[in-house]
Amino acid sequence: MKKLFTALTHRTPLGWLQLKHDLTRLLTAMSGIAFADILIFMQFGFLNALLSSNTLLHENLQADIVIMNTQALNWGELSTFPRRRLYQALDIPGIESADVLYVNSVQWKNPQTQQKTSVMVIGMNPDRSAFALPEITQKLNEIKLPDTVLFDRAARGEYEEAIAKTELGETVTAEIERRTVSIGGLFSMGASFAADAVIITSDQNFLRLMPKRQPGTVSLGLLKIEPGSDPVQVRAMLDAHLPDDVKTLTIEEFINNEKTYWATNRPIGVVFGFGAAIGFVVGVVIVYQILSTDVNAHIAEYATFKAMGYRNSYLLGVVFEEAIILAALGFFPGLGISIGLYALAQKATALPMLMTTTRAIGVLILTIVMCGISGAIATRRLQAADPADIF
Predict the structure, then answer these.
(1) Domain stop point among 193, 228, 243
(2) Beta strand segments in the chain, E
(3) HEC string for 256-299
(4) Partners of 293 in the β-ladder
(5) Do residues 177 and 212 both lie within one domain?
(6) Residues near 295 by Cβ (< 8 Å), separated by ≥ 6?
(7) Is 220 found in the same domain as 112?
(8) Which listed residue, of 142, 163, 217, 345, carries a Cα 20 to 30 Å from 29's Cα?
(9) Domain end: 243, 276, 302, which one?
(10) Distance of alpha carbon 357 from its chain centroid, rounded?
(11) Weakest-pLDDT range from 5-14, 47-56, 74-83, 357-366
(12) Which of 53-57, 193-197, 361-365 has the lowest mean pLDDT?
């Protein structure tokens, strides 16, 4: 190890010297790698925002097991099932409580702009919050009042004035399905790709807003298990006991099901993943062009090294040294610009666009791999170069 360290520290940094010899080419290479990294960062950022925003509700549910219709694909495409399935679930040992959740997407008039937009309305038991959010739990008495709802302050759209009035205790009204409702309080959840906003109210208020909805048909069943019970084991007993028109998922499976649906079953998830792959390919091509041009420009010098007795491994090391340096020099500008673009995207879309350490390290590794592949391709001519042919 000591000999290796000594060899590395005393080695002439030929790759770096060649790169900085032509600053124009170096800056072009850095710009190309930074562009590829920005493209990858943005695709990963939007993909993560897609998955995170569409599982915010799931992650805040106060439930251990979820019951849903077997034909339901995800939260946004729920089919109803009979409410009596929850009563049947209570027969299973280990089930502590069972609550219903009504879910429907509707058009409502923005109380500030009077423009119609899509919102998700959720009706729940007002005596026991379905969500582990203190802002909701503390306002359960509000939604017991007729035609009163809680509104998401992190919704996408122009709601600043309406939110400010609500926080001051003023009455703010809106219209849902030709019925006037009052905003009795606020909570923070966040917009998603499925809906611009979330509205929470009691189960009775939900049924008033949806008069065609039968009270005996529910969207989701939320089960809490007794302390010490195994959710997987309880779920297996539920599957054996309940009819085939419903299926059960642990809360972790429920979240993963939503992520899988958006990542693989919806075109938008596939597009973001494909975009990241395209960014990687673009980076490989750009770095290959730079390194290939550099090898061609110094082919005589490389041939001289060969004639002097230097092995191919040494010359390949020089090219790979250039590739690693380019990866580092291009990555950090790309990271800085991407952080700024994340902030702008989050402000414009109300989606959770946050740079994480894991993502930054992952893209750095991809950048190194990208430059390594480019270096491997660029060195093919170098390995075949014969000093006798060149001179």
Answers:
(1) 243
(2) 65-69, 81-82, 95-109, 116-124, 148-152, 173-176, 179-187, 197-202, 217-218, 220-225, 246-250
(3) HHHHHHHHHHCHHHHHHHHHHHHHHHHHHHHHHHHHHHHHHHCH
(4) none
(5) yes
(6) 302, 319, 378, 379, 381, 382
(7) yes
(8) 345
(9) 243
(10) 14
(11) 5-14
(12) 193-197
pLDDT tens track for 265-296 = 777 778 888 888 888 888 888 888 877 777 77
pLDDT digits (tens, 9 = 90+) for 302-344: 777 776 776 767 767 777 787 888 888 889 999 999 999 999 9
Give residue 288's domain range: 14-53+267-390
Look up residue 194 and give its two tokens: 């499925």
Q: Residues 6 or more apart from 344 whose CB is under 8 A from it?
A: none
- Which secondary structure element, helix H or strand E, spans residue 31, and what is its range? helix 23-53
The answer to whether 174 and 181 have CB atoms below 8 angstroms apart is yes
Residue 8 domain-assigned (yes or no): no
DSSP for residue 10: T
Are 42 and 75 members of one domain? no
Question: In this predicted model, what pLDDT tens digit does every residue of 191-227 receive, in sequence order?
Answer: 777 778 899 999 999 999 988 888 889 999 999 999 9
Determine, yes or no, domain membership for 63: no
Q: Do 81 and 31 belong together in one domain?
A: no
Task: Round the CA-based radius of gyration of the chain to a whole number and report it.
Answer: 29
H or E, element range at 144: none
Q: ∠108-110-112 over CA atoms, to 5°?
A: 160
Q: Are 108 and 198 part of one and the same domain?
A: yes
Per DSSP, the three-state class of 248 is strand
Structure tokens at 386: 């014969």
What's the total number of domains in the chain?
2
pLDDT score of 245:
92
pLDDT of residue 388 exceeding 60, the answer is no
CA distance 68 to 308: 74
CB under 8 Å to 56, separation ≥6 — which residues? 189, 190, 192
- Within a domain: residue 9? no
Q: Give dist(CA 278, CA 59) in Å, integer.
A: 31
- Distance, CA of 163 to CA of 49 (rounded, Å): 24
Q: At which residue do the structure tokens 């894991």 appear?
A: 358
Task: Please state whether 180 falls in left (phi above 0), alpha (psi between -120 and 50) or beta.
Answer: beta
